[in-house]
Design goal:
Length: about 375
């Protein structure tokens, strides 16, 4: 009996082992079949989820609907390399007017907001004590001259010494110097325009006591005006006196033409930029200092350039590529670029006038991909 039980046990183990082998074999077969069928299943579901419907090609197979794109037809155009910067408009000259001495203001001769000429008297401080002192000194001039003349005559006759003559001559010179000093002090009681310009608002009234630190009014010269702006370090070598610029002021579409007249001798440490100034005649004084301006400087201009929008070009394996529209498909073309602006790239070689360059959906394009032109974009 024991022998029969052992036989049955071994038979049972043998049967179970064969079943496990067949199960494992079945699992392996199913796994391999799944791996083979997976790409077809994935493609089927992707086509089902794709928003673009599947169409049948001429051979009866299925292909994706053509990609809708925008394109541009290449034409020769003028391509300009420009620098665009923001600028401040400042007056040609500007000064806060004040007296050189202290005293009571007795007269104000200017009208606020009016044009004045250089040297014109604007205001006056009380100078009566100085005028009296001047008259006193000037009254001594005839006597001093007579003494010098008399001593000179006696010296010629050897009647007086050279020392006696030089003493009276020195006294005369001292008198004239005192007179010049008083006149200079009187001149400091007068406020005169330092240049031709416009007087602004006044900050004092007649009868007020003023000191050298008191601002009487502000005076500016706005014909011409200066346009001040900064350029990055890489453009500093191209900024020099005589370089033309175009600027526009806020609120106006008019282009104003000016020329650079001065360049700062060094770069600012904070921004590594260089300050530049241009001058505009402003003969009608229509442009007021303090306004914001946009400056445009033309570095280079190519009249017959083939240019594409910068977004139409891609870099691949160190090469510059664009996609052309040819017979309903996208075809890559390698190009060599030249001048670059903010929006365009010059094509030196690789394209010809009349080529249709695709400018949208660039990252989805592949060689031979069917495409349909929705819109022909105008050249910039």
């Amino acid at each position: 009996m024991r022998h029969i039980s052992k036989v049955n046990y071994f038979l049972l183990i043998t049967i179970m082992t064969k079943q496990v082998k067949w199960i494992l074999l079945g699992v392996i077969v199913l796994f391999i079949s799944g791996m083979i069928a997976y790409p077809h299943i994935k493609r089927k579901f992707m086509n089902a989820d794709d928003s673009r419907p599947v169409v049948t090609d001429a051979r009866g197979g299925q292909s994706r609907k053509a990609l809708n794109i925008n394109a541009i037809v290449l034409r020769e155009q003028t391509l300009t390399d420009k620098i665009i910067r923001t600028a401040d408009i400042i007056p040609d000259e500007e000064v806060n007017l004040s007296f050189e001495t202290s005293g009571k203001i007795v007269e104000i001769y200017f009208k606020e907001g009016s044009h004045v000429r250089g040297g014109e008297l604007l205001a006056k401080i009380n100078d009566q004590p100085l005028q009296a002192q001047l008259k006193k000194l000037e009254a001594q001039i005839p006597l001093a001259k007579e003494r010098v003349f008399r001593q000179r005559t006696l010296l010629d006759k050897d009647a007086v010494s050279q020392e006696a003559y030089e003493q009276v001559a020195t006294e005369y010179d001292k008198l004239m110097a005192d007179i010049d000093l008083v006149k200079a002090n009187i001149a400091q009681t007068e406020l005169r325009a330092p240049f031709d310009g416009i007087i602004g608002l006044r900050y004092v009234s007649e009868g007020a006591y003023t000191t050298p630190g008191t601002t009487i009014a502000k005076m500016t010269k706005i014909s011409p005006v200066k346009i001040e702006f900064s350029v990055p370090e890489q453009y500093s070598a191209e900024m020099s006196p005589g370089v033309p610029i175009i600027f526009r002021v806020s609120g106006s579409l008019k282009d104003y033409h000016a020329n650079i007249y001065a360049v700062e001798s060094e770069l600012t440490l904070e921004s590594r930029s260089q300050k530049v100034r241009a001058v505009y005649p402003n003969l009608d004084e229509s442009i007021k200092p303090g306004r914001y301006a946009s400056v445009e400087i033309t570095k280079r201009e190519i009249s017959d350039a083939l240019a594409i929008p910068s977004e139409a070009m891609i870099q691949e394996m160190g090469k510059s590529l664009v996609y052309l529209y040819k017979e309903g498909t996208a075809q890559p073309a390698e190009i060599v670029t030249g001048l670059r602006t903010e929006a365009q790239v010059q094509v030196v070689s690789g394209l010809q006038e009349g080529d249709t360059v695709i400018v949208s959906g660039i990252m989805q394009l592949r060689t031979g991909l069917p495409v349909t032109i929705d819109n022909i974009v105008s050249a910039l």
